[in-house]
Amino acid sequence: MTFPVMARRRRARIVLLGGAFLVGALLLGPLVGATDVDLREVWSDPFDWSSNPAAAIFFMARLPRVLLAALVGGSLALAGTTYQSLLRNPLASPYTLGVTAGASLMTFLVIRFLPGGGLAEFTVPGAALIGALATTTLVMALATRTGGTPPTVLLLAGVTLNFTIGAAVLLVQYFADYTATARMVRWMMGDLEGATYRLLAILFVASLPAWVLLLRCGRTFNLMSLGREEAQAHGIDADRATRRGLLLASWLTGVAVAVAGPVGFVGILVPHAVRLIGGVDYRVVLPGALLGGAGFLVVCDILARVVIRPVELPIGILTACLGGPFFLFLLLRRGFARD
Amino acid sequence: MSVDASLVASEVTFGYDAPLLRDISLRIEPGQCVALIGANGAGKTTLLRILGGLLPPQAGSVRFGGREVGTLSPAERTAGLGYLPQRSPRAAGFAVHEMVLMGLYSLLPARGWEGKTEWLAVGRALARVGAGHLLRRSFATLSGGEQRRVLLARALVARPAVLLLDEPLAALDPGFVLEFTATLAALKEQGVALVVSTHRLSFVGALADAVVVLQRGGVLQQGDPVAVLQPELLNDAYGTDRFTAGGRA
Q1: How many Å is the Cα radius of gyration of chain A?
Q2: Å from B13 to nearest chain A CA?
Q3: Whether A276 contacts A336, CB under 8 Å
Q4: What average pLDDT does this structure show over A248-270?
Q5: Which CATH number fits domain B7-88+161-238: 3.40.50.300, 3.40.50.10540, 3.60.20.30, 2.40.420.20?
Q6: Under a CB-based contact definition with an 8 Å cutoff, are residues B148 and B170 in contact?
Q7: Which CATH architecture has domain A7-338?
Q8: Facing B74 at nearest CB: one of A4, A235, A338
Q9: Do A235 and B75 touch (CB under 8 A)?
Q10: Tens place of pLDDT per residue across chain B (249 aa)
């Protein structure tokens, strides 16, 4: 009997493909932008930034931003994959449980009431993270009250909180002055400009454990994506797996949104693209989404910097512009509709 | 496998507002087939779920090999109890071989991958239920009956000591019902214990060593099928008078 390509080999393929895509994007990313940078010029004197502007642009402006895009994109795609499995909904995104609303509310409150606070680098991210985690915790607590953690209740509670908190967000915005409103709108569009190496280090250390833990959940997510009974019949505590996975994914989302704002579409688009290439086995999709999401956001960031040079577009606009049509393309493909 | 491979339920009670099951006790020995029958909503599925450890009983206990089913590790459970759910899952995108392989997940090492042994087991299980030709198909595109066969293969693939089958015959064509009954008879011969919920009384007569008639969450009658399946009792169990009025089951 001949068997189809085994998951293990498909995973190796996806990891190779995703890895190559990410590395290519990371190499190209720092070189293009408002002014292009020549790599030879950078390496001619890489650390004397005062006399070598190419190196200064490369290391101070571009590289941290590109790395930030990779970290954020990887986390959002991995989180999206997790939500889609555990909520058993292909349209679930990292923002389904109300993370954006919570993060926006806290961020807007800070912008409105603490403009230019002492630790500007950390006040907005800190507030956004608190808001994101508080909302997810609230959604999960509400769902648990009904006994277990049923996906429908989680989804509906998330959607409801999104609307309710969204009203509070609008209220804060309504009572803000023009400068603050502009900052708020800008934040909503997603923004990778604040990248510093210190922030990157914090982000990496905060995200790595959740990546590792989620990447190990492939088999569990396969069974959970079939349903609660299926998972229970194979010895998985469905409620525990749901809570654990959603908390890890929400943590990743919260951290990513805290530093980059709510960058849309990565969490839906990338996992589906990976599924099209490598099949639906979560042992393949999870690593594929992490690498693919990282590469995808770096590419979006490159495009954001070059489409109307020298103006740089907010990255959220780019991901939505690319993501929307591509997602429709996926939806209308025969193979996708049949399943 | 431990020496004592019997599945024992003692005084199992379950239900949130109204009890779905009351004081159910039964014992299934290796190589024995117990049929659960009863009207829709009598509690057959709930009982099977509790026997399989998918639901914890609110009172009473279910023990397999002397241990509470809820305390078994995933690997012990897989080797002990195979479960066929009543409803087929919506398995968007998974191929048939991937579905069957899931029945072996908990026997794989923690971070390991399936190898030749597992794939051969998948192939054998599919062949056993006459679904070898479906191997590469997408599970979601199969007919209802084909999906049942694949799920049955998944329940069999780890060669469990006990098979818990929730309406395995639903949606199967008559030819396959016969094939399937023969497959189960062969498994019984090999010492596999079977607990089968069904509405087909002919199947009960052909295979079951004991029958449990459930009614509104309680046991109406249990024992030898020939002694239990009398028209008067069936009238009572299914809420009709047709069994004594010359109707045929």
Answers
A1: 20
A2: 19
A3: yes
A4: 90
A5: 3.40.50.300
A6: yes
A7: Orthogonal Bundle (1.10)
A8: A235
A9: yes
A10: 445 688 999 888 898 777 888 889 999 999 999 999 998 888 999 999 999 998 889 889 999 988 999 888 888 888 899 999 988 888 778 999 999 999 999 888 877 888 888 999 999 999 988 899 999 999 999 988 899 899 999 999 999 999 999 998 887 888 888 888 888 999 999 999 999 999 988 888 889 999 999 998 888 888 898 888 888 888 888 888 888 876 554
* Chain-chain contact of A8 with B85 (C-beta, under 8 angstroms): no
Structure tokens that stand for A92 in this block: 């679930």
Structure tokens at A303: 């495009």
Q: Would you say the ipTM is above 0.95? A: no
- Three-state DSSP state, B220: strand
Angle between helices A266-278 and A7-28 (to 10 degrees): 130
Instruction: Please state the pTM of the whole predicted model.
Output: 0.90
* B78 at interface of A, judged by CB pairs closer than 8 A: yes
Query: Is B160 an interface residue toward A (CB < 8 Å)?
Result: no
B70 touches chain A (CB under 8 A): no
Of B97, B105, B111, the CB nearest to A234: B105
Sheet of strand B67-68, all strands in order from the earlier edge strand to the far edge = B21-28, B7-14, B59-64, B67-68
